[in-house]
């Protein structure tokens, strides 16, 4: 790093790379760049670690974990006898607080220091070519110049839809749901996607009376055999589901009660309303106008994560990159970190003038974003998916055959829990005879997913999958049942 004082009096620092946003993705890009021998500054306006660490993945999974463990114990008669009480809400929330590091980022700052990454606190804005101006909480400005690349890794925020009265009703977003210190008596959730479903599961288990309004149905992008099972379970747990309708007005009255009117005429009351209707990119103040893009838009990138203009070519001569939620390719922490690993190496290769391999599955290409994105939805029961559903494969023009099997019918499942209910399905590309998608729903299926992710990413021929023998008696035996249902080539 080189330090100078610029003509405006602001401190100017020169690095090889400047990363805006120290969420999981920005941190990993910076790490890769440093490991490649370049200098890097990371700019962060809130907490180092980003949404995932403090208000998303970690705290929400901590809210869900105790109830899942309790359900598992209660599904076995001998173990059930040892559990006599209910969930200790205070203990659940305290453990959640610990997983959110009590909303302090000292640990992650220490990691940056150790990795040799410079941290600049404040809001970063692209102010000129390869230049980022950072304004800290006291209004002081630092100018960072990048020799090689600027990376936007500013993530996303909850999107609040334009429903009359909603914004004035002090709605919760996923942040308040993840960090709440008390459990509301009545919680209304708007949105039946991943956040809505997971938070309905968590808060119902913590004792709230939960109402979920899902305009497009519950979890509309997963296979219906999976979303239907989760919907049934939520209902059995007392969650009121209002599917295929949406709020048309929301009001919080003087007593603090939130009143919602739905399109079908239903009226509802709640103590809090959680808005879980998707995300909006954090690009409003990042200086996109400096490179001819529109502030507030998602950033489109090529497979090497270079930001593209509307003509499909890299903006500003190719020094601007975007990774993680902000590029909208696959808004998940693990996928953003995958992009970050590829991007760190890409920037280093381009800086050193060494070859960049952006061919599909090449070292510098984030190909899995399009073909093999795994996700676990920590609902009750869990849903684990990778690659295509039958519907998304058809939309992509792939000729597929879908087969399903009852997961509860395999010996490992019967042993795992009494009354085990679950289902698995695989999507086979009929022209190439490889697996292009896999979905499984059932208690404790999350750890089954990586086998499917490997099969999809590696494009393992179906014929060879017969030689991947699942151990007996495990849940994985469903793989064999799926192959048998598909049938063996003569
Ligand atoms: C409730 C919830 C639960 C989730 N659970 C999971 C899960 O279980 N598994 C999973 O894989 N994914 C999960 N996700 C998604 C996951 O949180 C995101 O994919 C991930 O956080 C994206 O990482 P990122 O680094 O791109 O962005 P972020 O984590 O949003 O980090 C971006 C960082 O940039 C900073 N920033 C923004 N603008 C500026 C600026 N102008 N200057 C300086 N800094 C700036 C922000 O303060 C933030 O720290 C969940 C999301 C939500 C909402
Ligand atoms: N376990 C995980 O991996 C995990 C957990 C939570 C969140 N996430 C990620 O966080 C992101 C955000 O999740 P999300 O659930 O907010 O978004 P989402 O896009 O998954 O779901 C939003 C839902 O809101 C519904 N909706 C939109 N407008 C509505 C309206 N006016 N009224 C009623 N319903 C409406 C849509 O039908 C949609 O199903 C996703 O990318 C998700 O993958 C991941």
Fold and architecture overview:
It contains 16 helices and 22 strands. The chain is α/β, with parallel strands linked by helices and 490 residues long. The chain folds into three domains: 2-53 and 101-157 and 281-368, FAD/NAD(P)-binding domain (3-Layer(bba) Sandwich); 167-277, FAD/NAD(P)-binding domain (3-Layer(bba) Sandwich), CATH 3.50.50.60; 381-486, FAD/NAD-linked reductase, C-terminal dimerisation domain (Enolase-like, domain 1). Strands 1, 2, 3, 4, 5, 6, 7 and 17 form an eight-stranded mixed sheet that branches. Strands 18-19-22-21-20 form a five-stranded antiparallel sheet, with helices on both faces. Strands 11-10-9-15 form a four-stranded parallel sheet. The longest helix has 20 residues, at 333-352. The termini are far apart. The model has no long low-confidence stretch (mean pLDDT 96). Bound molecules: flavin-adenine dinucleotide and nicotinamide-adenine-dinucleotide. Residues 161, 163, 190-196, 198, 213-216, 220, 246, 276-279, 331-332, 375-378 line the site of nicotinamide-adenine-dinucleotide.
Keywords:
globular, 490 residues, Enolase-like, domain 1, binds nicotinamide-adenine-dinucleotide, binds flavin-adenine dinucleotide, FAD/NAD(P)-binding domain, eight-stranded mixed sheet, 3 domains, alpha/beta, NAD(P)/FAD-dependent oxidoreductase, Class-I_Pyr_Nuc-Dis_Oxidored, five-stranded antiparallel sheet, flavoprotein, FAD, Pyr_nucl-diS_OxRdtase_dimer
Report the helical percentage. 25-40%
CATH class of the largest domain: Alpha Beta
The N- and C-terminal alpha carbons lie at a distance of 65 Å
Strand content: 15-25%
DSSP E strands, number: 22
Organism: Promicromonospora umidemergens
Cofactor: FAD
Protein name: NAD(P)/FAD-dependent oxidoreductase
Family: Belongs to the class-I pyridine nucleotide-disulfide oxidoreductase family.
């Amino acid at each position: 790093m080189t330090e100078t004082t610029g003509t405006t009096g602001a401190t100017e620092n020169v690095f090889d790379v400047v990363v805006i946003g120290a969420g999981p993705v920005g941190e990993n890009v910076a790490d890769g760049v440093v490991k490649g021998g370049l200098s890097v500054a990371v700019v962060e306006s809130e907490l180092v670690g980003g949404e995932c660490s403090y208000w998303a993945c970690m705290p929400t999974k901590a809210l869900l974990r105790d109830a899942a463990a309790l359900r598992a114990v209660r599904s076995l008669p001998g173990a059930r006898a040892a559990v006599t009480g209910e969930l200790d809400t205070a203990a659940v929330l305290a453990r959640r607080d610990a997983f959110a590091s009590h909303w302090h980022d000292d640990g992650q700052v220490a990691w940056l220091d150790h990795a040799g990454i410079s941290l600049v606190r404040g809001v970063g804005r692209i102010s000129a070519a390869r230049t980022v101006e950072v304004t800290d909480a006291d209004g002081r400005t630092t100018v960072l110049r990048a020799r090689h690349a600027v990376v936007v890794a500013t993530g996303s925020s909850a999107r609040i839809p334009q429903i009359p009265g909603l914004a004035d009703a002090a709605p919760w977003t996923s942040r308040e749901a993840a960090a709440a210190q008390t459990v509301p008596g009545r919680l209304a959730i708007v949105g039946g996607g991943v956040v809505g479903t997971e938070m309905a599961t968590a808060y119902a288990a913590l004792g709230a009376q939960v109402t979920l309004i899902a305009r497009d149905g519950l979890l509309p992008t997963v296979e219906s055999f999976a979303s239907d099972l989760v919907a049934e379970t939520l209902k059995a747990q007392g969650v009121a589901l209002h599917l295929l309708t949406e709020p048309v007005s929301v009001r919080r009255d003087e007593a603090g009660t939130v009143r919602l009117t739905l399109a079908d005429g239903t009226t509802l009351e709640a103590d809090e309303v959680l808005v879980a209707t998707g995300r909006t990119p954090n690009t409003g103040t990042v200086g996109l106008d400096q490179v001819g893009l529109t502030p507030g838009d998602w950033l489109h990138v090529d497979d090497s994560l270079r930001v593209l203009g509307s003509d499909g070519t890299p903006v500003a001569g190719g020094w601007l990159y975007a990774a993680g939620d902000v590029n909208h390719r696959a808004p998940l922490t693990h996928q953003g970190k995958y992009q970050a690993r590829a991007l760190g190496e890409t920037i280093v290769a381009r800086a050193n003038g060494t070859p960049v391999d952006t061919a599909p599955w090449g070292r510098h290409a984030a190909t899995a974003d399009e073909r093999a994105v795994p996700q676990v939805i920590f609902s009750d029961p869990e849903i684990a998916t990778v690659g295509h559903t039958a519907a998304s494969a058809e939309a992509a023009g792939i000729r597929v055959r879908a087969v399903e099997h009852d997961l509860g019918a395999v010996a490992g499942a019967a042993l795992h829990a009494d009354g085990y209910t679950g289902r698995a399905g695989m999507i086979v590309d009929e022209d190439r005879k490889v697996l292009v998608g896999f979905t499984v729903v059932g208690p404790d299926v999350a750890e089954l997913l990586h086998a499917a992710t490997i099969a999809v990413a590696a494009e393992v021929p179906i014929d060879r999958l017969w030689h991947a023998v699942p151990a007996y008696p495990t849940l994985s035996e469903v793989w064999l049942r799926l192959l048998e249902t598909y049938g063996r080539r003569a």
